[in-house]
Design goal:
The radius of gyration is 22 Å and the shape is globular. The protein is built from 21 helices and no strands. It is mainly α. The chain has one domain. 35% of the residues are buried. It starts with a helix and ends with a helix.
Length: 427
């Protein structure tokens, strides 16, 4: 059953579930790529404050800015998409409880543990003197909670929470037969019909980029838009910067036609995405107003191009269910939550090592990811309290029965089995 047909039904009624392995797979792989993104900051000239490492290379600026073009925007698209699916399958209260467990609990748990460890190490590396209990009572500790820097890489989850609340609020306040519900579905359907094909899709990319540009420009005009909405939170500008991706994700969930049109494979998209990643247009304060506005538009055009290419790529090549895709999906949140602290720890260890920068970066990425995998396999998959706190799930007994890392990647996928069986039949 699709979101379109289910949206008018009572949310307490059971609906047939379709698992979107392609969308889940894209989210999972991008969360793993976040390790390389943040490892790149250790060696990027644009991030000199990350560690004390003085060896830098311009390539890592290109790498991290390239990753920033598509990693979190894709997360917000996926967040909007799955928010609608959950709302068609659950009551509003169940949805809030689910999002609290899956988003708020891991956010709080990591913020109070590993993020604080990283902030303490940063404080020590910056010249702070004392044990962690001394730091907790210091002005530096109070400051990171007041100015919102406690979030570090968790800002994505912080931004998602109010979007989830907005989604459930709209869903709850609108009657099931409200005209605006059908209007939203009709609009999404019409958009899907219009952008089917290559030329119309290219125009759609331009329209999406213009919408993002208008969103950024409007947010910049809000008085105090760059200041924190309240201490420890985020600015209005940052909070709504990724909102258009969430909205399109919502629309894609409402309309199978739109989802199909967005995911339709187009031969030129790999080239367009490659060009966007290569040139990475970004606005700059050194540019004139007109030029910076043009660069902002090109930046958003590049982002939409790469994001939709990634989703098309996974839809085309990674739609099958397999033990490895399920393992990746299960480990993805652990990888996103834990890796940042370990990137900093290992990055600091490599400060005193005089190895080629490419070797250091590779080892840093592997060590950070490997440590998180060990935590996930040894703790998150085994102990209920750890799984609840850092994965937001209470299914530890079920997950123990599923293949772990080695078994998942040693067993053949459905596609490989099909090829083997076809070969056997042919023989």
């Amino acid at each position: 059953m699709t979101a379109q047909t289910a949206i008018g039904q009572d949310a307490t009624q059971p609906t047939a579930r379709k698992h979107y392995h392609d969308i889940d797979g894209a989210r999972s792989i991008l969360m793993f790529l976040s390790v390389a993104l943040h490892a790149g900051t250790v060696y990027a000239p644009a991030r000199p404050w990350i560690t004390g490492n003085t060896e830098r290379a311009d390539f890592f600026d290109w790498l991290i800015f390239g990753f920033h073009l598509f990693v979190t925007p894709t997360f917000f698209f996926v967040g909007g998409f799955f928010a609608v699916l959950l709302l068609t399958r659950r009551t509003a209260g169940d949805f809030i409880w689910n999002r609290f467990l899956r988003t708020a609990v891991p956010l709080i748990a990591i913020a109070l543990t590993f993020n604080m460890i990283e902030h303490y190490l940063r404080w020590r590396d910056a010249g702070g003197d004392g044990a962690i209990r001394d730091w907790v009572g210091s002005a530096a500790f109070i400051q990171i909670w007041a100015d919102g820097t406690w979030q570090l890489h968790l800002w994505f989850l912080v931004s998602l929470l109010p979007m989830f609340l907005l989604a459930v609020l709209v869903h709850s306040l609108l009657p099931k037969d409200a005209a605006i519900r059908q209007w939203a579905i009709t609009l999404s359907d019409k958009l899907g019909k219009w952008i089917s094909g290559s030329l119309a899709f290219a125009f759609a990319l331009i329209i999406f980029a213009l919408a993002n540009t208008a969103n950024y420009s409007a947010a910049a005009l809000v008085p105090g838009g760059y200041e924190l909405i309240f201490p420890g939170f985020q600015s209005w500008y940052k909070l709504i910067s990724e909102f258009p991706f969430f909205v399109i994700g919502v629309m894609a969930a409402l309309s199978p036609r739109l989802l199909s049109a967005l995911f339709e494979w187009r031969w030129w998209m790999p080239y367009a995405a490659g060009a966007a990643l290569l040139f990475q247009p970004y606005p700059s304060t050194e540019q004139s107003f007109a030029l910076s506005l043009v660069m902002l538009f090109l930046n958003q055009l590049a982002i939409w191009t790469i994001v939709l290419f990634i989703l098309q790529f996974f839809h085309r090549f990674f739609s099958d269910d397999s033990p490895r895709t399920r393992w990746l999906a299960d480990c993805a949140l652990s990888m996103y939550l834990f890796h940042h602290c370990f990137v900093y720890i290992y990055g600091q260890m490599f400060v005193s090592v005089d190895w080629p920068i490419w070797i250091e970066f590779s080892l840093l990425t592997v060590l950070a990811a490997g440590t998180v995998i060990a935590i996930h396999e040894g703790l998150v998959r085994r102990y209920a309290i750890v799984r609840l706190l850092f994965n937001g799930k209470t299914d530890v007994e079920q997950i123990k029965k599923q293949p772990g890392l080695i078994e998942a990647f040693s067993s053949p996928s459905k596609r490989q089995k099909a090829v083997s069986e076809a070969g056997a039949l042919g023989a």
